[in-house]
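Quick question, first post here. What does this chain look like in 3D?
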Amino acid sequence: MKFKGFDEFEKKLNRIAKNAQELDSDNTVSFVDLFPESFMSKNTKYTSMQEFMDDFDSDITNEEFKEIQNSNEWNEFVKSNSNFADWDSMIGTATEEYAANQLFDGI
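> Answer (accepted):
Ran it through. Tokens below.
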């Protein structure tokens, strides 16, 4: 980030503060937003979370996914098909990147 004087620095700080408030109030994030194409392409051989999940089980429902996301089978799939050791690592990194992108949006 480059700054041209204190006024610009103050504007950027205010923008970050506003973004932080919006991020704090945003309680749900879709998988599309949490796992954008850039994240998936960088960390997997897939371009979307949908493709990733379909390769695991193309008939899986949201309810079923809630149940299997902590299973050994899912963690092994994540480990074999991504740069992550397990699901917790993958979703943790995605969450960190999402938060950073939202925090510095418009800066």
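The mean pLDDT is 86.
The helical segments are 6-25, 31-34, 37-43, 49-56, 62-68, 72-81, 87-103.
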